[in-house]
Design brief:
- The complex is a heterodimer of chains A (354) and B (352).
- Chain A is mainly alpha-helical and 354 residues long.
- Chain A folds into two domains: 167 residues, Up-down Bundle (A middle domain of Talin 1), CATH 1.20.1420; 156 residues, Four Helix Bundle (Hemerythrin (Met), subunit A).
- Chain A contains 15 helices and no strands.
- Chain A starts with a helix and ends with a helix.
- Chain A is globular and about 65 Å long.
- In chain A, helix 2 runs antiparallel to helix 11, helix 3 packs across helix 11 and helix 11 runs antiparallel to helix 13.
- Chain B contains two helices and 28 strands.
- Chain B has a four-stranded antiparallel beta sheet, with no helix packed on it.
- In chain B, a hairpin with a 2-residue loop joins strand 4 and strand 5.
- Chain B is globular, with a radius of gyration of 19 Å.
- The chains are: A mainly alpha (354), B mainly beta (352).
- Chains A and B meet through helix 1, helix 4, helix 10 and helix 15 of A and helix 2, strand 23 and strand 28 of B.
Chain lengths: 354, 352
């Protein structure tokens, strides 16, 4: 029975008749892996920049060094936002994604913890090694945002706030360490990039190119859905007179729209970088153009939001509505048309299971 | 989440709610109920074992599972939906539409208790706790109480053989309608399977998965008459670290993993449906993510059958084997263009 089953497994697994040619798939998956690895590299570099900036801030508190730290923070947020929609691989190990940014935090777990640590002048949070053992909600960019932009952050311009600044420095260290680990995992010659680009039946994660293509398509379908539901929707749902939208990401730093734009920019980079258009005629033709057009359209909408941090409510609502529609179109196009063009199932249970 | 009024909900199910008996239209043999999607419309369908559609009933949104008891069939909304529809297969009673209360949504599964109440898995999403909502079919499915599931994200549930205990899979995933289907607690998931007293909901046993499996969401289940509970899981972690997806629980024993060998990876970390066949002591599981279905021996865990099928998910015992359905319109040997069958199939009992 075991032998028969083994034969059945070998014969049955990669059975998509319309799958692209192996050579082209391997090249496209390699390009996708490179793009993802570059995204994590960029984030790790930006996180290192935050470490340096917080070091300078703590060494010489003042308006300029605080502004530099905030700039570095914004750079890290943008870099993370460009890559955070990739939800497979090492970022899922050891809660790496949550360590970098614990969100959505609807119950304010991170906020309560950071406020408690500040109120008690908890020395543990100023040591990166100790902080690494604490709640993941306390170790990431959400905490850094509160420390650099939240209540009492202005005090960082003056000497005598060593605890808060050292806390920010430890958080920056943790973010850089976690980001660095993920980046290294993607850069390893025999690591996930290799397994993703050249899958083998013996690999624990990617046994066939269909596995890899499914993961790649999932970045777009699930990523767009997540950005729409967890980032755009809370931002758009705010009351017309609400200056700080509750439930949206990056509200204290005013980076909500910037990060949204970076989310989409990252997806667009992956779409272009993965060279999906090289896979077959369907992927290369009007379908590719439609997706590129929709990304461009969405990018323009979100850039308009990012350009004006406080647009009139009706204007913001109009843009957000259009952006939500555009995201729905993109998701449907990836799931319903691009996936089958790449030999993947388009049926609803695959992309929308429970 | 706005609560849909009962009248509004009933209107949305359409006119002509009375359901004529469908047995007359069927060939001999068992019947099945399943939720479906047809373009922009949703509903539940009654089919025979050949996949012939005998009845279609509209739903106001996407359904998930169907359960049977006290002469009713009850279809639930898929999470985070809050509607449910009870229909009388005999056609003697008007359908009853009801909703989860404000602050709750259904997870799409329910079961009738020996006392005749319908117990439905619900998300108390403001408190991030799982509940079994209790609905009384003798009173228009009024909500008459609730029991805790002692975990987050309860999904599938079943009545144990003998009818004195319930078993519930707490998937461990915290979600809130404000953020769609985004999981809010990946770092702190604590999936479990609990046994409850079916008379009063008292906790009898709670089996939490080991910390290394904290992202292994326990989701769908079925039972064999010896009390073995087979739970299919959905892995939320890195694919390279995926634990066994099929677990067996027994009251008083905790869990045992039933590794699928080489077939395990083909499931892509996702079991969409589980069905046990008491006639053979076998258990079927499906994965629309991996396009695969398998059958194992319930006692030994030996893999007996494995095959690929595009977007396969629904599965139910049928005679000595199983009938399966897909999101591409297949049900058993039949193919229905334009129909997508949802995740689960309920084998209908003749008298219930």
């Amino acid at each position: 029975m075991r032998t028969l089953l083994a034969l059945a497994l070998c014969a049955a697994l990669p059975a998509h008749a319309q799958s692209p040619e192996p050579q082209a798939t391997r090249a496209a998956l390699g390009a996708a892996a490179d793009t993802i690895a570059r995204g994590y590299d960029a984030f790790a570099e930006a996180a290192d920049g935050l470490v340096s900036a917080t070091d300078r801030l703590c060494g010489a508190p003042g308006p300029e060094t605080l502004a530099e730290a905030r700039d570095a923070f914004a750079g890290a947020v943008r870099a993370w936002s460009r890559i955070e929609t990739v939800r497979f691989g090492p970022v899922l190990s050891d809660n790496a994604a949550e360590r970098i940014f614990f969100f959505p935090d609807r119950r304010g777990i991170g906020l309560r913890q950071v406020q408690a640590a500040l109120a008690s002048a908890d020395e543990g949070v100023t040591d990166p090694a100790t902080l690494a053992t604490r709640s993941v909600a306390l170790q990431g960019l959400g905490t850094a945002e509160y420390l650099l932009h939240g209540t009492g952050a202005e005090a960082l311009e003056e000497a005598g706030n060593a605890h808060r600044c050292a806390f920010a420095g430890a958080v920056a260290d943790r973010v850089a360490a976690t980001g660095g680990e993920v980046a290294e995992a993607w850069a390893a010659p025999d690591g996930i990039a290799q397994r993703f680009a050249a899958p083998e039946p013996a690999y624990p994660d990617f046994q066939s190119r269909d596995d890899s293509l499914r993961a790649l398509i999932g970045v777009f379908t699930n990523g767009i859905e997540g950005v729409r539901d967890a980032r755009l929707a809370p931002y758009a749902a705010q009351g017309a007179d609400t200056a700080m939208p509750q439930g949206a990401a990056w509200t204290r730093s005013g980076l909500t729209a910037d990060a949204l734009a970076a989310n989409v920019e990252g997806l667009e980079r992956l779409f272009a970088g993965a060279e999906i258009d090289t896979l077959n005629a369907e992927a290369r033709g009007p379908l590719w153009d439609e997706i590129a057009f929709e990304f461009d359209n969405l990018g323009t909408l979100l850039a308009a939001l990012a350009a004006d941090p406080a647009p009139p409510a009706d204007e913001r609502d109009d843009i957000a509505t259009a952006a939500s529609f555009s995201m729905a179109t993109l998701r449907a196009t990836f799931g319903g048309r691009m996936a089958p063009a790449l030999g993947q199932t388009a049926a609803f249970s695959v992309s929308d299971g429970d | 989440m706005p609560l849909i009024g009962r009248r509004t909900l009933l209107r949305s199910f359409g006119a002509g709610l009375a359901l004529a008996p469908f047995r007359a239209a069927a060939a001999e043999g068992p019947l099945f109920a399943t939720a479906f999607v047809a373009g922009a419309s949703h509903g539940i369908a009654i089919l025979d074992r050949d996949g012939k559609v005998l009845r279609r009933l509209p739903l106001p949104g996407r359904g998930h599972d169907v359960c049977q008891g006290r002469g009713w069939l009850v279809a639930f909304a898929r999470r985070p939906g809050a509607f449910a529809l009870a229909i009388d297969p005999a056609g003697t009673r008007e359908p009853v539409a009801f909703s989860a209360p404000p602050g709750r949504h259904f997870y799409g599964h329910g079961v009738f208790t020996p006392e005749g109440l319908l117990a439905a898995t619900e998300n108390d999403y403001e408190a991030a706790r799982g509940a079994l909502g209790l609905y009384d079919p003798s009173d228009g499915f009024a909500r008459v109480g609730e029991w805790s599931t002692h975990g987050i994200g309860p999904h599938d549930l079943a009545l144990m053989p003998g009818g004195r205990r319930l078993v519930v899979a707490n998937g461990g995933m915290d979600t809130h309608p404000d953020y769609g289907r985004e999981v809010l607690n990946l770092a702190t998931m604590e999936p479990s399977v609990v046994f409850l007293d079916a008379a009063d909901g008292a906790l009898l046993e709670r089996h939490v998965l080991p910390p290394a499996w904290s992202r292994q969401s326990t989701r769908h289940m079925d039972l064999l008459p010896d009390g073995s509970v087979f739970v299919g899981c959905q892995w939320q972690g890195a694919a390279a670290a995926c634990p066994p997806l099929l677990l067996r629980f027994r009251l008083g024993e905790g869990h045992a993993a039933l590794p699928l060998g080489d077939a395990e990876r083909a499931f892509a970390g996702y079991v969409g449906s589980v069905a046990a066949n008491p006639a053979r002591g076998t258990v079927a599981l499906t994965s629309p993510h991996g396009d695969v279905a398998a059958v194992v021996d319930g006692a030994s865990g030996e893999l007996l059958h494995f095959e690929t099928q595009t977007d396969v998910c629904g599965v139910a015992a049928d005679g000595a084997g199983f009938v399966r359905s897909t999101g591409t319109g297949a049900f058993g040997p039949a193919r229905h263009a334009g129909l997508a069958f949802d995740n689960h199939i309920l084998p209908l009992r003749a008298h219930d």
